[in-house]
């Protein structure tokens, strides 16, 4: 049965109308008539084309993938129960409890969206980037332009191509080796918590085959230093080096990490972040998403 047979489009429209623009990180424009998100705003947040969202709502697109359903659930800030209802309305099985979730709870999404003057990224338990704000895009480049499977920090540290380029500009004052070891330790902990997650297993096995350094760290099994607040230097092509404090905040109960970069008020580094906030780092403040039929490539996100 198609998505329209289960009211998928009606759910999308209703939940789009429910979500306040400010809670999704959009400024309130004077004279705005839409009660919630505009269709183009939802498309932008989910990485879909506006036409595809329109056809989903009208029931003309009848078979959304699990990747599309997951992207829409995150964009609409659905609760877990609502996410599962959206999946079932599309004729899909909701994500299993024993696999890593990329669902961002509504409260966390609202909090992150309202901290627009701070670059924020939300990562799942395997260090896959699942949510980011415009200033994150201005600082690091738009993650939506990177294949979804490459938006993983471990792949960035130990892999190549687009994943590597996304993290190449960041240097840790604790030392890159120490930081890399802590990420490997986090993946080892994730494997212990989610032994049934086949995608996590493929990530680890792939990195072991691809990277001698990853394989060495994985094989040693030594305990790494826990994540702490630390100073990092980010080399930006437009404004130069920016020294920032990096804080990793754990979200209890959902196994997410909220990563925030800040600089001391009135410092030159804070001034550079302010400039990026205004200019978008050479891009628009609200980062454009690829205008694809599904919004995700064939290597797209595997979980909702």
Automatic annotation (TrEMBL):
Signal peptide: none annotated. It comes from the Bacteria. Residues 32-83 form the HTH cro/C1-type domain. SUPFAM superfamilies: lambda repressor-like DNA-binding domains. Pfam families: HTH_31, MLTR_LBD. Gene3D superfamilies: 3.30.450.180, lambda repressor-like DNA-binding domains. SMART domains: HTH_XRE. InterPro entries: Cro/C1-type_HTH, Lambda_DNA-bd_dom_sf, MLTR_LBD. One of its GO terms (molecular function) is DNA binding. Residues 281-304 are annotated as: Disordered. PANTHER family: BLL4672 PROTEIN, BLL4672 PROTEIN-RELATED. This is Transcriptional regulator. It comes from Nocardia jinanensis.
